[in-house]
């Protein structure tokens, strides 16, 4: 497992924006203001969009060599025909 999971500018930015939206939505929910609540919900979604855009821009976590090897090995296993199993196609 990667020891730096989530410690990227994209992750931090997305979480901080979403946290602010959560606080706004919570405060307006207590204040019984539906418009403010939905504005906070929109900010939460904005955090996900901004984090995803930053990841696509190269500011997210880079794939590890171990993960690449594991994916290649799993792909080979999926495409290798199994032999010796009686009734495998029955």
Task: Report on the architecture of this protein.
This is HGxxPAAW family protein. By secondary structure, this protein is mainly α. Helix content is 70%, strand content 0%. The chain is built from three helices and no strands.
- The average pLDDT value, as a whole number, equals 85
Into which percent range does the helicity of residues fall? over 70%
The structure class reads mainly alpha
Q: What is the succession of H and E elements?
A: HHH
Describe the main β-sheet briefly: none
InterPro entries: DUF6704
Keywords: Membrane, Transmembrane, Transmembrane helix
Pfam families: DUF6704
Transmembrane segments: 12-31, 37-57
Report a brief summary of the structure.
The protein has 90 residues and is mainly alpha-helical. It has helices at residues 9-30, 34-59, 65-79. Helices cover 70% and strands 0% of the residues.
Structural descriptors:
mainly alpha; 90 residues; 3 helices
Give the SSE map.
Elements: H1 9-30, H2 34-59, H3 65-79
Helix pairs in contact: 1-2
């Amino acid at each position: 497992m990667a020891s730096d999971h989530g410690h990227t500018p994209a992750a931090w930015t997305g979480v901080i924006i979403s946290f602010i939206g959560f606080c706004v939505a919570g405060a307006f929910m207590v204040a019984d203001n539906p418009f403010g609540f939905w504005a906070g919900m929109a900010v939460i979604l904005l955090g996900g969009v901004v984090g995803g855009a930053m990841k696509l821009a190269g500011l997210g976590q880079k794939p590890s060599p171990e993960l690449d090897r594991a994916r290649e090995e799993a792909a080979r296993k999926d495409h290798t025909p199994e032999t010796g199993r009686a009734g495998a196609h029955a």
